[in-house]
Structures are given as structure tokens and as C-alpha cells.
# Entry
Amino acid sequence: MRPSRRAPDEMRAVSFERGVLRHAEGSCLVKFGETHVLVAATLEERLPPWLKGQGRGWVTAEYGMLPRATHERTRREVTAGKPSGRTMEIQRLIGRSLRTIVDLEKLGERQITVDCDVIQADGGTRTAAITGAWIALHDCLSWMKARSLLSTIPLRDHVAAVSCGIIDGEPRLDLDYAEDSDAGTDCNFVMTGGGGFVELQGTAEKAPFTEEEFNAMLGLARKGIGRLVDLQKMAVA
# Structure
């Protein structure tokens, strides 16, 4: 039995609360069980210097964890003078995941920055951030269309993410912290609504995993991503 008393293929309770920030063009409070991430999408009429004059836009992301998102206080990275390697990895992953499903030429020479702040962590913060970021990005693009800044919403597809792992020889979907810290294998899957792969991150923590075990995790991930995309569709309907 899992610590959360879920079935191996059962996700935590997932919810999206839209429009939680007054000033942001798009925002969402996403919850994967006890993991809560606040996401804000901001339209900026500027581009990185290397993109100017190319007739297309850009979507980027920043990620951070509030000091008491975890059991013990974590020092703010701004006081350290630079983000950690983990933070850089995650925010680049979020940005890449969003850019794969946006038609950047239709966005025009503008940038959308998606800020993902973890306010409570219980495993799967990057997967929750990516999934909630799609909602905030969608609402930012809808805001632009409503003000005639765009003729259409330039989203090609949905994108969502979920974790899977092998614990005590059993493949499990959507790991919480207790499982993630004890997993023999830990994988993150980022996929589109159409079933395309954006990124796969898999690590053997204790012993190498087999092709059979990977395929079992992939099957769980497909089920989880399908559920998340359905919830995204319901949230923005």
C-alpha cells in the first residue's frame, strides 16, 4: 500500500484555480495533492537581443521555491546571489515544454515570461509547474486575443507532466515526497495532448531499471498525462 493509500496507477487530487493574481495577464494556482504552485504569465513587449528582428516571439520561465515550502526553511536564492543548478534546470525545462506547443511566429515579437513559485512542496513540483503553466499561458494568450493583440490563440496543443517511479519493485504514478525519496527509479515525463514526447528524465537511484519497467512507467505516464489534459480542457472550457 502506498503511503497515500492510492492505487499504483492513481494520481493525487489535481486542481487548477485560474485568475488568482489581479495584475498578471494569466495566472493559476495548481495543486497536485499537497504540492501547490502559483503560476503567473506576463506579457512583455520586448525580446532577448538575439531574437530581435526575426519576426517571432519567445516564451521563457522562471522557477523558485518559497523558504517554507519544505519541512525546513530554505534560504532564498536571491541572498546567495544566483539560482542553484537545480533551479536553472527546472526553469529551462518549463520554458522548453511551453515553447514546443506555441506558434512563436504568430505570437509576434513579444515575450511571455511564466513565473512558477512553489508555495508548498510534497514531490513533483516541476511536473505540477509545467501542467499549471499551460493554464496560465493559455489565459495570457486569451487576454491578448481579447484586446486584438492576436487574431488567434497560437497554441498548437496541450502540454502536461507527471512523475513515475519504481518503489519496492512496483511501478507507481505521480510520486509524492515520501515515495520520491525512496524510489529505486524516478522518471519525469513531459508530453503533449496528442501523445508526443517533449522530455523524458529517468534516473536509477539504487539499481538499473529494465526496459520492461520503463514501459510500465510509460504506460502509467500516458494515463496520467491523459487525465491532466482532460482537466486542463475542463478548466479553460
